[in-house]
């Protein structure tokens, strides 16, 4: 079963990468998809993501303090809700409280970074698996074995989640000989410096957005957010 891991921003991507590595040993029938790692070189990323969204049976949205209002996450959430039942779309809250979530993400059953809640998430993913589902009686023991490894990789990222964020671009220290102590800005969608951020500067993204809109059917997303595809983009790292 394919599980789509949605991310936006550097921390969110790191969390998604942890889940990409961790889920298959827990439920061997699961095949996670992470755009930053799984798109073949030379592939058209818009078409590839559209296909994976359509083929996925479950979606995990990796939410962090700096991407709660990221259009790309909302876009993929809308696309996932079109492809699968809403019960199979789970926002994973890393450094985020449920009270901080707004519509349309609030309509999904969110998961806190907590042992019991992640255990329930694993159980839900297992229930959604048609072939290779683990017997419910065995799943708690399997989770008990693998939970420490998830915690070992996610705990070091908690400091990043605790840093203040402006909800859009994240401030990072400027580097290099030209640095004068000022802080440069990085886009929360692609983690690139604002001055180099391709989705703010490059025209071809308009074409990519058009392909995504056509492939995914943006009526769902538009109805959820009242937005157009022209405001949504996230280049793949």
Give the overall pLDDT as a whole number: 74
Low-pLDDT residue intervals, each spanning 5 or more residues? 166-185, 188-232
Name the CATH architecture of the domain at 2-162. Answer: 3-Layer(aba) Sandwich
Reading the helices and strands in chain order gives EHEHHEHEEHHHEEHHH
* Percent of residues in β-strands: 5-15%
Count the strands? 7
Strand order of the largest sheet: 2-1-3-4-5
In words, what does this structure look like?
With 237 residues, this protein is an alpha/beta fold. The chain has a domain at 2-162: Rossmann fold. It has ten helices and seven strands. The chain has helices at residues 10-26, 35-38, 45-55, 71-83, 115-128, 139-154, 158-162, 198-201, 205-216, 219-225, and strands at residues 2-6, 31-33, 58-63, 89-93, 111-112, 169-173, 183-187. The strands form two sheets. The protein has a five-stranded parallel sheet, sandwiched between helices. Strands 6-7 form a two-stranded antiparallel ribbon. Helix 1 (10-26) links the parallel strand 1 (2-6) and strand 2. Helix 4 packs across helix 10 (219-225). The longest helix is centred in the N-terminal third of the chain and has 17 residues, at 10-26. It is globular, with a radius of gyration of 18 Å. Mean pLDDT is 74; it is low at 166-185 and 188-232.
């Amino acid at each position: 079963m394919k599980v789509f891991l949605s991310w936006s921003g550097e921390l969110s991507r790191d969390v998604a990468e942890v889940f990409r590595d961790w889920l298959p040993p827990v439920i061997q029938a699961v095949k996670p998809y992470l755009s930053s790692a799984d798109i073949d070189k030379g592939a058209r990323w818009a078409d590839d993501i559209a296909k994976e969204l359509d083929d996925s049976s479950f979606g995990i949205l990796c939410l962090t303090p700096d991407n709660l209002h990221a259009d790309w996450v909302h876009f993929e959430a809308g696309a996932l809700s079109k492809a699968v039942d809403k019960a199979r779309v789970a926002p994973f809250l890393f450094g985020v409280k449920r009270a901080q979530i707004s519509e349309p993400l609030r309509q999904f059953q969110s998961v806190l970074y907590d042992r019991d809640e992640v255990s329930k998430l694993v159980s839900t993913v297992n229930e959604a698996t048609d072939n290779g589902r683990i017997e419910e009686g065995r799943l708690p023991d399997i989770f008990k074995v693998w939970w420490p490894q998830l915690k070992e990789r996610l705990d070091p990222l908690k400091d990043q989640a605790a840093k203040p964020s402006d909800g859009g671009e994240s401030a990072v220290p400027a580097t290099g000989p030209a640095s004068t102590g000022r802080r440069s800005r990085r886009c929360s969608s692609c983690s690139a410096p604002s001055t180099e951020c391709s989705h703010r500067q490059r025209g071809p993204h308009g074409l990519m957005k058009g392909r995504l809109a056509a492939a995914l059917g943006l009526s769902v997303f538009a109805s959820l957010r009242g937005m157009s595809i022209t405001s949504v983009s996230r280049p793949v790292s």
